[in-house]
Design the sequence.
């Protein structure tokens, strides 16, 4: 795996300041983010077949059965928006294969409206 690089000092989401996390910047990378109430969010990015990117977004260590609104974007264009329910292992994931652009900034957010928990992660591949 190639080195991870930081992108900025912080991000404001719904009035909550979240610390910036390292972003993947290579042919493959794993970025670990944080949730405002103690969970963990990860973004796995990988160049697969020529012209394609595999993007895996996972939230872990959250309450089993909790419902989350997930938004995933590439270069500020939404490619996934939907609801996910944390399973009995207290996690959920969304995996997609995307067409690669010259630069691919992937941003993932998950929001639990019941607890106001917000998870954020971003990576560049």
Sequence:
């Amino acid at each position: 795996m190639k080195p991870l690089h930081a992108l900025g000092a912080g991000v404001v989401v719904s009035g909550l300041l979240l610390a910036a996390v390292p972003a993947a910047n290579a042919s493959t990378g794993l970025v670990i983010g944080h949730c405002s109430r103690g969970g963990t969010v990860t973004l796995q990015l990988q160049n697969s077949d020529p012209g394609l990117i595999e993007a895996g977004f996972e939230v872990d260590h959250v309450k089993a059965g909790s419902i989350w609104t997930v938004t995933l974007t590439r270069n500020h264009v939404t490619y996934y928006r939907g609801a996910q329910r944390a399973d009995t292992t207290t996690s959920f994931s969304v995996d997609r294969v995307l067409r690669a652009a010259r630069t691919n900034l992937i941003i993932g957010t998950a929001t639990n409206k019941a607890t106001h928990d917000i998870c954020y992660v971003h990576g560049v591949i």
